[in-house]
Amino acid sequence: MLSNHNTINTLNTYHYFHCFWPKFQYKTKDERQLTQYQWTHSSIKQFKCNYINCNSIYKWKSQLNQHINKIHLNVRYVCVWSECHKQFTTKGDLNQHKSCVHLNEKLYKCNEENCGKKFKERQHLTQHKQCMHSSEKPFICHFNDCDKHIH
User: Fold this and answer.
1) pLDDT tens sequence across 64-118
2) The C2H2-type domain covers which part of the protein (predicted)?
3) Is 47 in a helix, a strand, or coil?
């Protein structure tokens, strides 16, 4: 795998480590970062769960840790906002819940020209873009042999 990664001295004498996989422009000054990055191209899963009768293996150590916390240790992150007490398996999910539900933040913004509409969930933004900004009409009305294509 390392054969597809190399070092290059550029004209300005900075030393960069580059990824030479086709269509990838990744470069870094830190060889360890390149080594970590190169795993994105690999299908090798090197992190195995050591719990009895568990055969789960993962590409990233963070995935293994998340698995152990969620499945074996039953770690939960609890929302303490105004007696909510909803539980989540990741801190990221808890933070997104707080932002969207309790703070009413809309994190997903439509980037289409002259739109800028915001949504709490990514899937709602995706639906909006398909319905409002796409000529694609994936549904067919079958009522009374209408057969009209609609969003």
Assistant:
1) 999 999 999 999 999 998 889 999 998 988 988 888 888 888 888 888 888 888 8
2) 47-77, 77-107, 108-138
3) strand
The neighbour count for residue 34, using CB atoms within 10 Å, is 20
How far apart CA 140 and CA 85 sit, in angstroms, is: 43
Average pLDDT, the chain: 80
> Whole-model pTM?
0.51
Tokens of 9: 């001295």
User: First CA to last CA across the chain, in angstroms?
Assistant: 45
CB 74 within 8 A of CB 66: no
Query: What are 18's two structure tokens?
Result: 């580059």
The two tokens of residue 122 are 């990514």
